[in-house]
Batch of 3 targets.
Target 1
Amino acid sequence: MKRTYMLFGMTVLFSLFLLTVNVWGAPYISFHSYRTGQDAIYIVDTNGKNLRNLTNHPSDCCATWAPDGRSFAFLSHRDGNFEIYIKTFNVAQARRLTNHPELDYAPAWSPDGNWIAFVSKRTGESHIYKIDINGKNLQRLTNQGDNFSPAWSPDGQSIAFGSIGPPGLYVMDADGKHPRQLIDPFHVGGRPRSPAWSPDGKQIACVVGNNGDDIYIVDTDGQNARRVSPLGIWSNNPAWSPDGKWIAYDAYDTEIAHPPDNPNAERHIFIVSVEGGEPRQITQHPGQHVSPAWVPESFFSVSPTVDTQTTLWGRLKQAERMTQ
């Protein structure tokens, strides 16, 4: 009888373990949401399940992940001014990275884990800067026009960004040298912005604004531009999945005319195949859900939920020894 109970207990624990592994093994996306009436950063799996609040603070948004998954940088107004912060797991408090009275925003973590690129209006215009993850070695990278949305290439050698003057999508070396226009607005029929590199570094996803905003994919030589989101649905903030197969983005409610002018318009997170096709809506809760970013798989090795997996596995092994 005792052995029967032990075997039953093992079966239950093993089932729980498999369920936990299946749930947390799914790809996850972080995003910024105003679902509770306060800004916060959440993660959710690509089935729209297992929602989790990462920051529990009423003024946080726009996460970018460290390559090792142990930290993320984000924008916050928690000290009375918009600055960039870093949150490391197993550390209670977020650490402020920038400290300037003008707006700092749009952080992007470098592939080698050493730098954060971001946008700042500290000179009156929006320019791209980078700073090391200890808050040292601030460098201004752009010198002309209003620039925004920096995105590191997978090898860390280049940074793509959008610009208003002259308008277009640009690429520069990681030290700010050799800026060059990648996409001319006339080439794609609208102003391109918000670039995201493919994992192999051969393509860039971006937003093209025309009658509504659309997600396009273009080769890094500026050729073969093609739309992958539904036409004119006001889609923004593309993020390329680590396996190179999907684009996550946020989009407005399609039933509202010119939704950017409507404060009550809903925005949701979608994913779409890089080959195009019907997008899948990830978020369902009313409100605005924006700025998706794919969560590194290594995040789950430091997540408290993985600690639960380890505990279950330990109990399973203990029960197995007791029945031998």
Note: The first strand starts at residue 28 and ends at 33.
Target 2
Amino acid sequence: MNSESVKSIKPQSIKVGICGFGTVGGGSYKLLQNNGEEITRRVGCAIDVSRIASRSLNSGDVDSAVKVSKDPFDIVNDPEVDIVIETIGGFDPAFEVVRQALANGKHVVTANKALIAERGNELFAVAEENNVTLAFESAVAGGIPIIKALREGLSANKIEWLAGIINGTGNFILTEMAEKQRQFADVLTEAQQLGYAEADPTFDVEGIDAAHKLTIMASIAFGIPLQFDKTYTEGISRITPEDIGFAKQLGYRVKHLGIARRTGSGVEMRVHPTLIPRKQLLARVDGVGNAVLVHGDAVGSTLYNGPGAGADATASSVIADVIDLARQELVGLSEPLLPALGYLSTHDDLEVLPIEEIETEYYLRIPVNDVVGVLAKISSILQDFDISIEAVIQKELDSKTVPIVILTHKALEKKLNLAIAAIEALDDVSGEVVRIRLESFEG
């Protein structure tokens, strides 16, 4: 460290402003108040909330020393504020609040995964220009410190792949469907009543929330720019208790996973329902919990498991970032110690593969007329497209239509697409083929 990178004046206390005082903003304030003495001992100086911006908060609801206003730019433009916590959410006005704070030379801590995944490249550039840090541990997996693990703890490794249950709402729904043989729509209604799902649950159940988080993790794991628009996203609304039951018979559980993998052809980034072996640790994560499995070339596989949401859990990650930045200020660093995404230079030439180019195993459920020879025709089509069968379940039901369930060996997705189209064109196939990707995460 050269002398030019160290400031001559050390602050006696760090002033923090909180923009947005909902679940996460309020939880962050509460945690600083409740654990202030412990945090001061860790940092070496006090961390004080000096300003809060909220449309609904009254000044009597917080300490009398805290200035309360409705305009977050009061905080951004206050020269006494060292660190801005952004918990407004969304893009407007959150993007401009964060951008202006960074431009004003203030560190920013955000829990806004959509903002980082979709606009992070722009914001990190502003932070770099002004020698400040945009920290975002709380944007992924709530209280689980997965960003620090990927960027710091595993930095000696070449990350080969990662896979995560990174949306608690979807995991709760699939857990209830598996344990109680309930329909998706019924469990979703209960999740909304319990506060696990929003009135509009699209971001959770269709995988958009998980795709934001996966985009961020993949960027740090592989040293690539943030590319949310290239993350394949598929939700869980079409999963049925029937498919979950067949998966169980075959030794698997269905989980909604975010998967990122480095291959010889490029990088896979995909969110979709996935069959995983019941013995796999990820398969045992139930309810609203989150977990991320990371495989590095040196360390092997490591699992990070815990609460992925909630006021206290998310605030834990927010304040951990605040503590890191306070330490940086206290020792007088005039520029960030760590690159935002873990790499000083990114792999701009490392291609993100379209879903048609990925190779994996598959679960297929095919509704067929109960006639002789239909399985042979399906097997012949799969063979024509270089897809081999690992296992078959053919249910004998008191019905004219029966399901044939097939597990395949590893196959190229675009070839499977062609095979499914040919299978659905058979006279004795009575409906759409259900396809769920399968991953074993071996090695």
Note: The longest strand covers residues 252-262.
Target 3
Amino acid sequence: MSIQTRTIEYKDCDIVLAAHMAWDETVSDPRPGVLVSHAWAGRSEFEDRKAERLAELGYVGFSLDLYGQGVTGRSPDENAALMQPFLDDRALLQRRMLLSLEQLSSQKEVDSDRTAAIGFCFGGLCVLDLARTGADLRGVVSFHGLLGAPGNTEGMEISSKVLVLHGWRDPLAPPEQVLSFADEMASHGADWQLQVYGNCMHAFTNPEAEAPENGMQYDPTADRRSWDAMWVFLNEVFN
């Protein structure tokens, strides 16, 4: 195994975006590609490492960029300011996600008929919105993602399989929102699954999340279990 990486630059109008792609160069045939959608701070080492771990599993990992090349937040206030325009304009969010999927699918290392997406926190909402558009991909996985419906995808059929990995004590997606999400998925005719980690808060995969007073706390057991659940799911949707 020899994991290689490169930066993929692409544009949405005049906004230059920069993704981090990882693959095993010892594999000659095209292989499944998996988008990694970032949390509210923007593309970081956290997401890039997830792309590299996906490459170690035999996929092409593609840590996408929604905000623009080099644009990241350095505080909760900055992160929120970067994320809010996409929450206010879900069509913009969806366009950037579809553009990222097109870029992944166009890479020579990728089997364009076998793509998926995973996302963390805000990124979880992003991959769910990608599925809500009816995008042609095999599956999406949301890790402690936001679950609120976008309001512009009613009546669309979700063709990709959906896996939601959720902390029950997550204040950003409380139980009533989880139930609303279940109703929404049923209305779309989706093939969807929900795994709940009973004592977990938001951001349970992020070792730097240490703010239980704000409902954010790393949980190493849920981190491991959720990654294993993703691995089983990807094996299913790609085979």
Note: The chain has one domain: 8-238.
